[in-house]
Write a sequence for this structure.
């Protein structure tokens, strides 16, 4: 029964699509039917041109991207957002990271939750630490707060680093 229901649902969707977007009338498509012409499986061949690695090619970040050193992140931010932060500015990020890793509440949250849930606790703490250090580097603070794309990238990168470190503790 499920197969018939699935086929009927699919048929109805196709007809609606043809009528709405294809310029056909209900009468034009009323005589079409869905018919199975083959049954089998498709075997994917490895090591062929065009092969996709499901862990890295499906939009998921690669391990080497997540473990990038801070200097590479500074370079990425400068390139992508037109900033000119120097290696000396990485101390600002190092200090915030160190404070976040020492936070017992965040440690408990990281060990008890997946990163998707940890994100909520992290964002509040990250913003608090950022505001505390605002006077030390006004330029970075303003860029993180005012530029949503920039701030989002920094926050996500920092969250993954802190989460990974807290998971190991």
């Amino acid at each position: 029964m499920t197969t018939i229901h699935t086929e009927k649902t699919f048929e109805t969707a196709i007809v609606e699509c043809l009528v709405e977007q294809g310029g056909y009338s209900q009468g034009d498509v009323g005589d079409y039917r869905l018919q199975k012409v083959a049954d089998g499986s498709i075997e994917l061949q490895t090591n062929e041109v065009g092969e996709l690695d499901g862990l890295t090619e499906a939009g998921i970040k690669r391990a080497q991207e997540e473990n990038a050193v801070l200097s590479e992140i500074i370079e990425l931010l400068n390139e992508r957002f037109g900033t000119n932060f120097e290696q000396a500015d990485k101390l600002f990020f190092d200090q915030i990271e160190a404070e976040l890793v020492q936070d017992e509440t965040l440690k408990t949250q990281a060990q008890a939750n997946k990163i998707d849930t940890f994100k909520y606790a992290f964002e509040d703490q990250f913003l608090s630490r950022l505001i505390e250090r605002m006077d030390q580097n006004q330029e970075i603070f303003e860029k993180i707060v005012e530029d949503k794309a920039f701030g989002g990238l920094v926050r996500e990168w920092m969250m993954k680093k802190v989460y990974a470190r807290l998971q190991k503790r």
